[in-house]
Structures are given as C-alpha cells and as structure tokens.
Amino acid sequence: MILIAMIILIVAVLAYFWLMMMDLRALINQLTFINQHTTNQQLKVKTRNPVIVALTQQINQLIAKQQATHQQSVQTKQQLDLAIHNISHDLRTPLTVASGYSQLLLTNENLPETEHQQVSKLNQNLQTLSKHLNLLLLYNRLLENQITIIPKQLNLSKLLTQTCLNYYDALQQKQIITDLKIKPNIMWQLDEEATTRILQNILGNILDHGYQKATIELKQINQGVQLTATNQLITPIKNFDRLLDRFYTEDLSHREQNAGLGLYIIAELTRMQGGQVSLNTKNLQFQIQITFKLTDAKKDEA
Which Gene Ontology cellular component annotation is one that this UniProt entry carries (predicted)? Predict the structure, then answer.
C-alpha cells in the first residue's frame, strides 16, 4: 500500500510539473509573439495554478507599463518633429531678410571699420544659422518621406570635384590642406540632389571638425565605387558609437557649434540610394567611407 501511495504521489507531482511546464511554454510563445510584433496583446492562461496565474499577472503589469511608456515616447517624438517643422519654417523668412540686410551693409563703403567688422561677424553668424536651418529642413523632409530618389547616370568624379572647389576658399581660410585623389569619369546611378547634399555634408564636416590636413579619395572597387574622406582632429572623439545619432554632436574643432545632423543625413541619403556608410577613428584621425555596389538586380541588368 505504501509503495502504491508513493507511486501515485510521484505521478501526481510529475503531472503537476508537466502541466506547469506546458503553461510556461504557452507563456513563452505568447511573449515571443509580443516581442516580435507591435501589439497591445497581453498574456492569457487557462490554468488555475496559482503560481502561473500570479506570474502572468505580474508580467502583464510590466507589459502594460512598457506599452504606456512606448506610446508616450511616440507621442513625444511626434510633438518634437512637429515643433522642428514649425520652428524651421517660421525662422526661414526672417533669417533670409536679416542675411540680405547684413550683406547689403557689407557693400556700404562708407561704413566705419569697426562697424564693418561687427556686421561681418553678424553675417558669419547668420550664415552658420542658415546652414543649421537648412539641415533641419532637410531632416524634416526625411522624417516626412518627402525626398524622392530619382537615379540617373551621374559623373560622380565631376560632381565631387566641383563640390570640393566650392569649399576651397573656406578650407583655405581655416588652413586645412586638402589632398584630392579623385579618379576621373567615375559614373554611377545616383540621385543628383541627394548625392550633392551628401558631398556637401562631407565637406562641411571637414570644415567644422577638421584640422590642418584632409584627404578625399574617390575610386572604383570590385563592382562598385568608394568615397573616402579622412581628416585630422584637434581632440579625439569621445563617443564614436553615437556619431550617426541625430542631434548628437561633439565640439572637435573648438571653433563652432554643430547641429549634429550632418552625419545622420549622410547615412540616411546614402541608405536611400542603396549605399553603405562606415566610420572609423584612430588617435586624432576621423574617416568616413561611403560605398555603392551593384545589387543582384543591377548585375543582371548589366
């Protein structure tokens, strides 16, 4: 009798644990679905096991808190994006008017030297503000999916050379010697407006953060093209992993503040055209590399 009772007890315990394992597997499957999908679903159990029921209730409370936090985060982001949109457009007109007046004053030959210097400084600050505003407007267009990529056969070598020439005087003024290694007549299917903005932001990044020397290289690689921009820094980068985050900035040149959108926009516009961006830094050197390669579909077309 004792042996039979022990067998029954063991069977009962095993059955209890087996049912508990089945309940836990059901919870794990539901949790896996919730983690892999955007849903307001919570855990449901059919068991009457008080331990499993209590565990489910606690997990559901955590899920509810996480869902509420996520919803609040989404709403905050939407409000921030709307504020950026409104502020950017509200500032554009008065900024354009102020820039026009400052440039007009600079052409006044009767303006005393002291006042001319003050107006010149004002004009430089307005240009910096205008640059940041343009980045905000472009960022807003990216958020609202208002940028349409229209690829065409583009002479990337010619476009890069022209962009470098446009920045030549500014680079000379900041005493940054730029070595150009641009292979001629490199053609690729790219959107001209988006690619121009990428190149402008690369040169702008060198202008803002570079020191003494920079190198810009464009070459063909196996079934693709590669653009590499390298510049020296005054101080090492502190948080390398955050450089592509929007609005993150480091004052690497000790000269002027930065909007923290340049590298983010480069990465987004490159991604939209099927390219890849990689960043590297070592000691007092920073490098950004952009690579466009043929996709399988383009290989078949070729």
Answer: plasma membrane
The confidence score (pLDDT) of residue 19 equals 77
How many domains does the chain fold into? 2
Q: Quick one: pLDDT band at residue 188, thresholds 50, 70, 90?
A: very high
Same domain, 183 and 94: no
CA dist 295 and 170 (Å) reads 37
Torsions phi, psi of 287, nearest 5? Answer: -140, 135
Residues 135 and 174 reside in one and the same domain: no
pLDDT, one tens digit per residue, over 82-104 is: 777 787 778 778 888 888 888 88
Kindly tell me if the per-residue pLDDT of 152 is higher than 50: yes
CATH classification at residue 288: 3.30.565.10
